[in-house]
Give the backbone structure.
Amino acid sequence: MCGIAGIYNFDQSKIDPEIANSIKDSLEHRGPDFSKIEYIDNKVVLIHTRLAIIDLDQRSNQPMVSKDKRYSIVFNGEIYNFKEIRKTLEAKGVNFYTDGDTEVLLEGYIHFGSDVLQLLRGQFSFAIYDSKEKSFFLARDRVGIKPLYFALNNNTFIFSSELKAIEKSNLFPFSADFDSYVAYLRHLAVPTYRTGNKNISKLEPGQFLYLDKNKNISKYKYWDPFCIEEDESITEHEAISKVEELLIESVNYRKVSDVEVGLFLSGGLDSSLIGKLMSKNTNSNVKGFNIDYEEHFEGYQGEVEEARFAAKNIGVNLVEDKIQYSDFKKIIDNYSFFQDDLVGDEVGIPLYFLGKSSKKNGIKVVQVGEGADELFYGYDHWLRFMKLNRYIKPITKPSSINIQFKNHRTNMLSNILLNRTSFAGGALGFNLPEIDDLLVNGITNDFELINYVDNKWDDYFSNKNSKLSKWMTLIDLQIRLPELLLMRMDKLVMQSSIEARVPFLDHKLIEYILTIPEKIIFDKKTTKPLLKHVANKHIPQKIYSRTKQGFRAPVGEWIKKDQEYFYDSIRSFNSSTNLFKSKSLEKIISGRDYQKKWYLSNLAKWHLSRSIG
């Protein structure tokens, strides 16, 4: 895993070495093993910071140049099936000088062009410069595990693994995107190609782009899970067998490494099953990492005992660590800088400390259980929502009846009755009536991004084969996973130079799961019925039948310890933006919902760190 960046000056001016160095320095935490700045024709520069995992030899350092000097690549991620692709290329007469996946990716692009993306099984973002055509090719993996940002103006194109690297270049000044801010309030992340900075975009999951010498950008979607349809002929036995086969294959692919691979272990079904599959056919125990809190809090009693039980039963050596309030205080001023993108979930805090624990114990790579809940229906509130929809049916066709409720449950009920978007995703900060009440002028036509999910909803349910259960998974694959859960995993864990691999989000596994009929993969009485059948073959029932807690952080308790610190930032933000009604804002600040206070404080600190710094 690495940090990548590049600059293209269209006006032929020489790139300032100080700018290139500042970008490289800002990415060093992503790749501390080697870094290099490569100038091409003075007007193009490629930047790479390397975390050496496959082929540790310096011959696999980047930027890497093709044999004929035409193509240059910077690559962040891993191609797990690179050995199979290498054999295909060798059959075409290609000779390789390294044992890594970067050279395979470069040669694959030279021979297959953008079609190479169909061959790749992994997590990646990369850029290839063609010195003959004076063009760039950029691509991001199907699920969006690895981020990639870019910006373009009249003179310059720039891209990077991180938003703050582009901002640090000072080539594109910060400009607050209030449309994205408002969408963040709803989703706790920014959907589509947008970011909180109006001048910087991100490449979407499953997308690639061409940039030609005339500054024209063309973007293409090469993978879209919304196009996958159910296969009613699949039986339960077939589904269990195939999911098990694909999951084992996925875990084994993610063991491909020239360094030791560890595990983030909560002690629940997802991480324990991964750990058991990792431990098979290995000579030494896998290192598992668990974080707990010195102070437990309402709704979360810790998972250390569960992790200890799981570790003992799956052959994992457990490394335990604890977070105190003082640890949180040490990072809170820099937290918005660490999280990089506009992400509202507080779970990035324990992830940050899990990364530090892994690095302290000599681990560079970990497998994690992200994605299993979204694919296998692991949330109790998903089940409650589906039950509600079985008993309550819309009383009207989609209409503009303006009945609004700020209470979440009442609002959801009214949305079902009035045939509006009743499930906007698994993460919900504020609902639309709450946001409308909070904004100075309400939700006006200036805020289009907030309705992105509603347009998607209307489009999906215009299809006669649409199903609500599939929508829940699909929309989280579209927004919550890539822009929230995977973003926080990448940014906060990579602060300690740790690569996280997500076996449940292998695209082959996702594609098959989406074909499984609802009657097999969903059960209104229990979460993850299909995955539990698979788990039953590998881990004790006590692990997968325990009540799910979810990974949380006690932000409410921490806010109470120093309330003005958080409230001052919210008020300062509103003084500078005039985005919110003072009366509505003060009502939230004086209220009991500390999650909403955290979401607002996080937005405020993110904005202020850029507009002031």
Remarks:
- The radius of gyration is 24 Å.
- Residues 182 and 450 are 7 Å apart (CA to CA).
